Amino acid sequence: MPDSPKDDKNHNGDASLDSQEQLVPRFHSSKQAKRKLNILLTNGRFPVSLDLARQLKASGHKVYVVDPMKYHVCKFSRAVKKSWHVPAPHVDPAGYVKGVKKAIVEANIDLIVPLHEEVFHVTQICKGNPEIIGKLFAPSFDMLICLHNKWYFHKILRRFNLDAPETWLCRSVEDVQNLDRSSDLALKPVFGRAKSNLYHLKANHPLPDNILIGPDNHYVAQVWIYGKQFCTYSVARDGKMLALAIYPVQDTVDGSSCVYFKSIDHPGIRSYVEVLIQKLGYTGQIALDFIETDSRLVAIECNPRATSGIHLFKQNEGLVNALTSAVDTSSPLESFSFTLAKIGAKRQLFPGMVMWQHEGVSLKQYLRHLAKLTTTRDVIFSWRDPMPSLMQPFLLTSYYEICRERKMKLGEMFQWDLTWEPKGEELRQVEREMEVWDAEGGAARTGGLQGDGNQAISMDGATLP
After folding, report:
1. Structural domain spans, the chain
2. Buried b (16+ CB within 10 A) or exposed e, 77-95
3. What residue spans carry the region label Disordered (predicted)?
4. What phi and psi values does residue 248 have, to the nearest 5 degrees?
5. Which CATH class, in words, describes the domain spanning 1-14+141-357?
6. In which band, very low, low, confident or very high, does the pLDDT at 11 lie, cut at 50, 70 and 90?
7. Phi, then psi, of 153 in degrees rounded to 5
8. For residue 247, what are the β-bridge partners?
9. Is the N or C terminus of the chain more exposed, i.e. has fewer CB atoms within 10 Å?
10. At residue 250, does pLDDT exceed 60?
């Protein structure tokens, strides 16, 4: 049978995690933190990379990037001082880390801000290496993988009395066949992203024939919850949330990837994220996906890295201060104020808005989308930094040439060389590390499970039906 969470009797209150401490930069004084920093971004290809580079430069910092792509959007931006072409971490993680080290030395880097799944490669290879880990704004490798893994993330939420979908770990197709199929289920890889390899299993319908579950590819099955969808992006240090953006999922290109962003406030979501960050003692960037029904607020996925919520902060706002707070560990946390992205702030990814998924929409919905398209500021275009927009035809040509060489679609190609997908013995080692973190040094050290582990738990600890 597929596994469901069991009660954990081995816990020691709500203490922060010891494994977190070694990864927070400790070598900068308060005086040094006030100077302008040399900051390295771990890729330069995404709109998020460009937007963050511009925000950092507007605050007076010098921005550098590394990327496996020779040509990317940040390479042509005035916000970026230099770009290094490095090996792809998906293919050559050690070569990628060597490129990062070169950039650190040449640019005298003070702070490294990870942007995508290259953070897993860096933290995995560089454990105990202060040259990189001491400058990296991210939690430990074991915490990262437990948050990224959908099964362990579910267990963490349960231990913190945060509502989560009923979830089962499936190691084989037989595990899926043995599930109670009387209600709709979501079936997805434990190490997946967005909607890749997501199956919507309709109640009492036959299973698809192409589910690739095996020793190197475990899945989780979750009760499919219908409701309003929201995304968050947060920055935290030592368990204190310093910046937060919340936005509903509206216009998408594939049902999950947002191309239009509008900032809102949601007290329930804010409280949920704050509890998680505080109980983890979290330092770094963290993004959660939520579904809200009439009676529940449920987190369904965690991305412990940068996401599109960055777009909802303007230049010279609190996001940059939150990120650079990592170099000033001598100042008390209370001296850093909390920043919520300005309510009503709007941004769009214009190419994505043009490719908007609009099948079956009404005329009113179409006109509303058109109004957003024509009135909302684009993430890429800037009068002060026009080259990233002007170079789009060249970049698209370059991207499609790579797609042709690799026989990949554009979306897959754009992420492939940064993704982290452990297999074989590496996966076995990762699984052992997650088990140790969970049982001894991680989530197991916080509040214990309530109920039998198969029931949803609300934020006040009450068991939901």
Report:
1. 1-14+141-357
2. bebbbebbebbbbbebbee
3. 1-23, 443-465
4. -75, 150
5. alpha beta
6. very low
7. -60, -40
8. 231
9. C
10. yes
Average pLDDT over residues 241-268: 88
Strand partners, 233: 245
What would the pLDDT profile of 297-319 be if each residue is shown by its tens digit? 999 999 999 999 999 998 767 89
Q: What pLDDT does residue 353 have? A: 73
Q: Please state whether 161 falls in left (phi above 0), alpha (psi between -120 and 50) or beta.
A: left
What lies within 8 Å, CB to CB, of 280 at 6+ separation is 16, 17, 20, 139, 143, 156, 239
Please name the amino acid found at residue 109: I
- Listed ranges 200-209, 313-322, 364-373; the one with the highest mean pLDDT: 200-209
- From the list 240, 263, 261, the residue with the least C-alpha distance to 252 is 261
Task: Give the least confident one: 115-129, 146-160, 169-183, 345-359.
Answer: 345-359
Task: Give the pair of three-digit tokens for residue 249.
Answer: 């999922």
CB 168 within 8 A of CB 151: no
* Better-scored residue on pLDDT, 255 or 186: 186
Point out the least confidently predicted range of 155-164, 183-192, 234-243, 432-441.
432-441
Residues with Cβ within 8 Å of 194's Cβ and at least 6 positions away in sequence, in order, are: 254, 256, 257
The answer to whether 41 touches 63, Cβ cutoff 8 Å, is: yes
